[in-house]
Design a protein that fits this description.
The chain has helices at 2-42, 81-89, 219-233; strands at 46-54, 58-66, 70-79, 95-109, 119-133, 140-149, 159-167, 172-180, 186-195, 198-207, 236-247, 257-264. It is an alpha+beta fold. It folds into two domains: 1-109, no CATH class; 150-265. Strands 1-2-3-4-5-6-7-8-9-10-11-12 form a twelve-stranded antiparallel sheet.
Length: 265
């Protein structure tokens, strides 16, 4: 029994020393290597305020910034055990991330030519699985939630949910997003499919809680808003199908085709 206790406590002390050394190495040396590798793979400037070890086989990045793409308060990654074992013998090998989480993220869309479509997605929580790093062609499954923020838009403040898969290297994607109104019904849906960077977006708009409050409006806009407000108070939903095509690596909202309908609830 005494021998067992000595072995057990010795093992615990050894593991504590290993984890302490690993945490020190990651905090002091690994941050620059990780930011450099991410910048190279994403072809964007990446900044990390703090990088630390996360139990059992992961890293935790705090205050991460991908310039002109997103920010995140925390990004957590867990590596597959086989990646760790292989790394011990071949340090330059690829890493398999079994799970990645982005917490308290923010994504902003703004194009100088598309100012009227500018919006941001706040309080983003994203979970993704099966990622190869450095990035390689692979279907990465993801699930995302967030809050839509856009001035003078009826669905601003609504919850956004999305799920599907994405291949960042081949620029392929298949996913479905929906913007939920206060009654948890989808005010907007978007089915997004991309093949070799050729992306098509199509979906439905079913806005029931219409509320347009621009700071300044023309006479035509004022009349339009009065009509929308009256229809909404009568229980009428304004619906439309829409679609547009763009590039996955240069997303632009333009040349939208609409077909609409009006229905009563």
């Amino acid at each position: 029994m005494k021998l067992f206790k000595k072995v057990f406590f010795g093992l615990v002390i050894f593991l504590l020393i290993v984890f302490a050394g690993l945490s020190f190495y990651i905090k002091v040396y690994a941050k620059d290597a990780v930011t450099g590798a991410l910048s190279s793979s994403l072809e964007r400037d990446v900044q990390i305020q703090n990088l630390q070890y996360e139990f059992p086989l992961g890293l935790l990045a705090r205050d991460l910034v991908i310039v002109d793409v997103m920010t995140a308060k925390e990004v957590s990654t867990q590596f597959s055990p086989e990646s760790i074992w292989t790394f011990l013998s071949t340090p330059d090998q690829e890493w398999k991330i079994s799970k990645l989480q982005i917490r308290k993220g923010s994504v902003e869309y703004f194009k100088s030519l598309d100012y009227k479509f500018a919006f941001s997605l706040e309080n983003v929580f994203l979970t993704a699985e099966d990622i190869i790093f450095p990035l390689k062609p692979v279907h990465t499954n993801f699930h995302l939630t967030g809050i839509l923020d856009k001035d003078k838009f009826p669905l601003s403040g609504s919850r956004v949910e999305g799920a599907g898969w994405i291949d960042l290297i081949q620029k392929d994607m298949s996913s479905r997003f929906k913007v939920l109104e206060k009654d948890d019904r989808a005010g907007l849906t978007a089915n997004i499919v991309s093949k070799n960077n050729q992306m098509r977006v199509e979906g439905d708009i079913q806005v029931r809680n219409l509320s347009f409050t621009p700071e300044t409006e023309t006479q035509e806009e004022s009349v339009q808003n009065m009509i929308f407000g009256a229809l909404s108070s009568m229980g009428v939903a304004i619906g439309a199908k829409y679609s547009f095509e763009t590039k996955m690596d240069d997303f632009k909202i333009s040349n939208i085709s609409f077909s609409g309908n009006v229905s009563t609830r």
